[in-house]
Prior knowledge:
One of its GO terms (molecular function) is metal ion binding. By secondary structure, this protein is α/β, with parallel strands linked by helices.
Amino acid sequence: MEQMMIQTKSRPYPVFLGDGIIDNVGEWLLSVCNNPSKILIITDQTVKDLYGGKLESVLKAFDLDVLTCVVPSGEQSKSFETYYKCLTFALENNLDRESVIIAFGGGVVGDLAGFVAATFMRGIPFIQVPTTLLAHDSAVGGKVAINHPLGKNMIGAFHQPHAIIYDTQFLKTLPLLEIRSGFAEVVKHGFINDRSFVENLMKTIHSLNHVTSEQLQWFIRKGIEVKAEIVAEDERETGKRAFLNFGHTLGHALEAELGYGKISHGDAVACGMLFALWLSEKIFRKDFQYKSIKNWFNEIGFPVKIDETIQTESLLERMKKDKKTVHSQIRFVLLEDIGNPVLKTFDTHTLYSFLNEWRTEGCV
Ligand SMILES: NC(=O)c1ccc[n+]([C@@H]2O[C@H](COP(=O)([O-])OP(=O)(O)OC[C@H]3O[C@@H](n4cnc5c(N)ncnc54)[C@H](O)[C@@H]3O)[C@@H](O)[C@H]2O)c1
């Protein structure tokens, strides 16, 4: 088992990472939350069916009063309706300010349960118990949110968890698509922070079909280290935290345009990263070996182009609604070099031309 500390201005908190560490959840929860009145596990149907009984029994062994609220699996649960149902469940079951919420699942449950914890009685403690690879990113840093039909993560808060308990054993049941989705964020952390990590990944990972437990821990540790360094400096995204959005401006637009859940978050981000890499080479007149990276993405199974039925205009419209867009200037994270991200703004006309050029030339 490894332990890391996340240092944020609001609160430092531990991350416990290991294979088969779930049995310690009760002990670690009590070490960070003194004498909780009730524990509310918020989880999705898939995770509940696979592991709900196990987590409940581990907590009950500590004589804790445990309740479980189950939401449907998938992005559609980051909605007002589900958020409201969770709050109603908490009120009907008499949770109070001394209660603790456990977000048990992937990034969807983490974002939703975190937002419930941030707003229930003006904020109660919560603990992240992630079950997807992608959650190495979403569980760290305290951004919690739900979606609005007009945009992703538009209603949210900053609310740091009290601890993250990451048992890689859960990842054994994760479908390949979800492993790949999480892997995209691992690659992102490499691109914005560490060239040698990216090179190492490109050398050693050619398929995600048989990722070992050691490799998963390597990905998660590295991803958490990069994220931890950034949020320690910039908890509320007034500066370098924005670099974590590498690949996300186009990625979010693609997710929204296709309809949430039609493409995984990571696949959309991977496609967005490819465009951002191509654009970075163009703007900074550098050679990042775009073609090799694109071929590697293809080998891994990431989408390397956008379906022809999607209009460039529609993607632009989506990007204009992005939280990072100000005065119609669309903000992109580009790379001056691998490991050296910068922010660049584009007017819609310029971006339209670049996006069209990439779709016709960069994707082939
Ligand atoms: N808050 C942040 O900083 C941040 C960062 C990155 C992404 N996110 C958010 O994370 C979300 C995506 O997270 P995700 O990819 O984990 O999606 P997810 O939570 O929907 O999980 C993906 C699917 O895997 C299933 N699943 C979860 N654990 C499983 C397991 N162990 N075995 C089998 N199936 C399992 C889920 O039921 C779901 O169907 C997006 O909403 C994104 O916006 C947030």
